[in-house]
Amino acid sequence: MSPPAEQPFLTRPLSVVLDFVRFGAALLVAIGHAVQLGLYHGWFPFGVRMQHYCVIVFFVLSGLVISTSVLSGRSSLPRYAVARLSRILPVAVPSLLFGTLAAYVLAGPMPVRMDNSPAEALEVTKQLLAPLAFLSAWPGVAGPVWNPPYWSLCYEVWYYAIFALAVFLRGWPRVLAVALGCAAAGGAILLLMPVWLMGAALTHVRTARRLPLAAAPVAIVAACAMALFLFRIDHAVLNPLLKAWWPGDAEWSQWALSDLLMGLAMTLALVAARPLVNLLSAPILRLDGAARTLAGFSFTLYLFHWPLIQLLRSWGIEAGRSFPMFAALIALIVLACAGISILTERQSPRLRRWMESRFLGEAGLRKAPLSV
Q1: How do residues 29-48 score in pLDDT, each as one tens digit?
Q2: What is this structure's pTM?
Q3: 39 and 306 in contact (C-beta within 8 Å)?
């Protein structure tokens, strides 16, 4: 009798917990940006580092989920492409259009106005087309100035593409395609790819699934200590170190060294959380509905919160130093994004079914065991 197949790293209880983590990270990004943009002027213990490190959490989770789905054995390059496009486009395209509309049309007494010159019109067009092609993270290519969080999506799309080329192709075509993909992505984007690959590696490294339960609390404390320590050395030590040896502009990867350490901390936290979560699987699984609901609009919250905050400020709506008012405005933004998600994220399954039937034929109608 053959031994039973080893359980994958991403178990169902852990997936429920990570849904909460995904929403929590998106919420922290929105809170941090609200403070950064002046929606709140009271005491706040973190700067822009908090929301940036939340993006690193997204990268690790993304690598884990995508690699787990591919390892299910029922994926292929066309199915993978359809799954990624149907997940990204329903949120990415509306967020760019809404950001443009918010900046130039809906804004109040403090809007961004075009001067109607050909140069300004060309710049706005560039700021729309480059992100739509996920090129706005390239050095020298203007990003969507009205929606800076979009940068991480541009990074992730390149990671998706390079990962797919490495997994689904074979022989010399794979080597050539991956090399061309890396060259097209550019050095700044590749600087953070190891963070994404840390999550993907969890699906392959067997020792990550074998941490003893007794060691899990110690590993959790170590991961938290590493993350907190980064807030003491990143700005003063690691960032200048990267600038000293990296040629040119690192763009959004200017914190790459500290990001790599934060990625390691998050990876260690996942390894430590797995046995604890499995121990508490019964009560955790009862929270599955709530987790799915919150995670179901976390992508929309991430890409829509910035223009919503800018809209509030353009109409003179701010919390000042009032924390209750600030909490109310954050709740308003979250509820608005939950409503918007009906037209964005919740349309992803419908778009995926259409793309599968249109481009993959009958074989594309068979559902993969994991949604990616």
Answers
A1: 999 999 999 999 988 888 77
A2: 0.90
A3: no
